[in-house]
Amino acid sequence: MATLQPTQNEEPPEVGAQAQAPAPSQQPAQEPTEISEDHIYVALTHDHLNYQSVIDRVRSPEAGAIVVFAGTTRNNFNSLPVQHLSYTSYAPLALRTMLTICRSILTKHGLKGIAMVHRLGVVPIGEESILSAVSSPHRQAAWRAGEEALEECKAKVE
Question: How confident is residue 30, by pLDDT bands cut at 50, 70 and 90?
Answer without folding.
Answer: low
